[in-house]
Structure formats: C-alpha cells, structure tokens
Amino acid sequence: MNLLADVVAPAPLVLDGLVVGAILFALGLVGILARRNLIVMFLCAELMLQGISVSLVSWSRHHGDWGGHVLVIFVLTVAACEAAVALVFVLQAFARTGRLDAAAWQSLRESNLSRTIDRELPAIDTVPPKFPKLTPAGVEPAADEDALLEREHV
Amino acid sequence: MIASILPSISPGTLLAGGITATAASLWLLLPSGRSGAADRTARWLGWLLGIVALASFLATGHRLGSVGEEAVFLTVALVAVISGAATVVSRSPVYAAIWFAMALAGVAGVLLVLGGQFLGVATIVVYAGAILVMFLFVLMLAQPAGLAPYDRVSNEPLLAAVAGAVLLGILSLSIGRLTAEPPSCCLMSGTKAALLAGSGSAAEPTSAAEAGIDMLADNHVARLGGELFGRHLLAVEVAGVLLLVALIGSIAIVSRGAADAAPAAARRVAP
C-alpha cells in the first residue's frame, strides 16, 4: 500500500487561499512592528487574524471537514473579547498621557533598550480639505426664550 | 498566468524578486517623517513597487479551472491585499480603520469563494459591523485634532518591512512545496497505516473531493451548526464565559480607571 498515494496535493484554489492568508498575515506583522499609534497596531493585529482565518478555511476546504470553520468562529469570538478589553486599555492610556502613542509608555521598556527620541518633524504643507456647504434653506424661527429656559431645567 | 507569458523567469527568481519588491515597497510606504514632494515621490514609488510585487505573486498563482471563478477570486483577493496594505501604511488612524473595513469586505469575499458561506457573512457582521465601529468610537473619543507626530513616523520601518517580507517568502516557499511533496503532518505513522491495511478499509481521504463538494451543499449552515453544537459544545460554552469575562473586565477597568485617571489628567493640565 503506497501511503503517498493517499495524500493528495491541495487544489489550486486552496493554495491561492493560503497565499492570500500569508500576505495578509505578513502585512499585519509589518504594521505591528512599525506603527506607533496604538489603535493602528490593534487594527494590524486584527489583519493578522484575518489572514489566519483565510488559511484555516482553505485547509478546511482541503480536508473536507468543519474543524477550520469552527476554529474561525472561535477566532471571531476571541477577537471580539480582545478588542473590547484592548480598547478599554487604549482609552485609559489616552486618559493618562493624552496621546495614542506606544512610545508614551517607553518607561516600561527593558533596561538595555535605548530610549525612543522623537526628532523634529518638518511641517505638513497639505491644504486643509474642502467640505461642501449646504445652502441655508428656509428661515430660522425666532427662539422662544421662555421655552428655552424651561427646557434647560428639564 | 503571467508565468506562461514569461517562461524564461524561474519560480525562484520570481519569488526572490517579489520578496525584494515587497520589502522595498513597504519601506517606502510606511510613514517615515518625510514631508512634501519627497513624501509623495516615496509613496508613488512604493505603490509602483507594490504592484510589481503583486504581479510576481500573481505569476506564481494557479489556474483555477473556470475563468469566472478565477476572475472572482482574483478580484476579492486583490481588494483584500491592497486594502490591507493601505491599512498598514495609512497615516491617519481613521483612514486606516476605513481601509480595514474594505479589507474585511475582500476577506469575506475570499471566504465565500473558499466555501465558508456562513463565515463570510459573519465576518462582515461581526467585524465590520461591531468591532470596527468600536474602533471608530474609540478614535472619536481619543483622536487629537490633526495628524499627530507619532502617526508620521515609524519604529524601524526598514527592519519591519524586511522582517515581514522574509516571513512572506518563507510562507510562500512552504506553500509552493505543498504541490511537490506531501507535508509530513499528513503522512500516516506506520502503526496506523498497518491497522488500516489490516482492517481492509480504505485510508481516510485526506483531500476528499466529495467531502469538499459536500461542504458546499445547500444545508451548509445547518451542518456547520450541527458540528459546532455537537462536537464542540463545551468549547462554545467556554467561549460564552470568555465573552462574559471580557465584558465584566472591561467595565471594571473603565470604572476603576476613571477614578485613577482623573487626578492624572488634572496633573497634566495644571502645569
């Protein structure tokens, strides 16, 4: 009995799915490593989870069982929990430092790592975005002062 | 596809070129504190190199059989990958979140093509509908006006881009090797094979085409639900408890943190 004969190479669709998953995971990794905004870092973590999900569903298709699908459902669950707790931490960090900057917490770094020092950045020369303006329609009714006062105390 | 047009390029060269282009593209695209014309040039160059890298990955892709399937898969995969790259390199976190929503749409399409109908819809509903909106709420609460300086620089962009590209290269190599030889995980150990041979039953199909088709049957969601609440019922219960713990935990952190953060904020404002 030839054991290798039973092992079928993955279908082209499965292989392409695996490549897409790998690309998404690598992109998320680059973002986690390089970006400094806490929220963008969490978005990149979610991007890595998406890559994992695509890979899992590809393997599920290959093996013809539901394990990958079930695992992706649990990945969704854990991602929801992670996002809730992590965003609360981000909010607390923002309340304490006023910045969404990972380097604002660099006092927690290992003692043998060098300090992140921000250099002076050149000014941005972009023009502010132009938003469309609605033409005012109708006439603003005169405000009833008594009603305004009453409403304020409600 | 492209490999048939350019038969002279070997797959190894193609992969190496694609990895190099990926690293250079990500390095140019990541925020690095440049401004003005230099920034614009770097970004254009980065996107061009990114297209080169994508083309080299497309060239290693496979024919899926039908033109329609190929076109659909290519479209959703490109949407997912390009939006994912834009998520990583966007300066403004709000734009990053919006691009991430686009990437989620692409990923949902890929899942649909791969036969995960329920998961495709669940990704849109849970991620784009709930988690992403939570991110946007936090951005509204915590985003300072304008582009913050820490959004315009990166930690070691060159090293990060090279690390990501090398990881991608290793993963692509191992995926490409799947067609050449079976992975060791799927080889049966001697005793199991002997048992199967002894009982006379055929080996359990590793890639049963009929099982794959079965997965695309009409009652897909019912079967997934049966598997989830049958074999994995305990795990579902644990996941429910995990959600409850996360809910209670985040409420506890918020209410205790608010009391602690008020003096800190006051100290920050006072001087």
Which key features would you list for this structure?
heterodimer, A: 154 residues, Helix Hairpins, 60% helix, B: 271 residues, mainly alpha, Four Helix Bundle (Hemerythrin (Met), subunit A), 11 helices, 76% helix
Structure write-up:
- The complex is a heterodimer of chains A (154) and B (271).
- Chain A is mainly alpha-helical and 154 residues long.
- Chain A is built from 5 helices and no strands.
- Chain A is extended, with a radius of gyration of 26 Å.
- Chain B is mostly helical and 271 residues long.
- Chain B has helices spanning 2-5, 11-29, 37-59, 67-89, 93-113, 117-142, 157-180, 190-199, 209-215, 220-230, 233-269.
- In chain B, α2 packs antiparallel against α7.
- The longest helix of chain B is centred in the last third of the chain and has 37 residues, at 233-269.
- The interface between A and B is large, with 91 and 118 residues.
Described by strand count, sense and barrel closure, the largest sheet of chain B is: none
Helix content of chain B: over 70%
Fraction of residues in β-strands of chain A:
under 5%
Strand content of chain B: under 5%
The class by helix and strand makeup of chain A works out as mainly alpha
Q: How many β-strand stretches of chain A?
A: 0
**Helix content bin of chain A:** 55-70%
CATH topology of one domain in chain A: Helix Hairpins
Write the H/E string of chain A, N to C.
Answer: HHHHH
Summarize the structure.
The complex is a heterodimer of chains A (154) and B (271). Chain A is mainly α and 154 residues long. Chain A has helices spanning 3-6, 12-34, 38-63, 67-97, 145-153.
SSE map:
The complex is a heterodimer of chains A (154) and B (271).
Chain A: H1 3-6, H2 12-34, H3 38-63, H4 67-97, H5 145-153
Helix pairs in contact in A: 2-3, 3-4
Chain B: H1 2-5, H2 11-29, H3 37-59, H4 67-89, H5 93-113, H6 117-142, H7 157-180, H8 190-199, H9 209-215, H10 220-230, H11 233-269
Helix pairs in contact in B: 2-3, 2-7, 4-5, 5-6
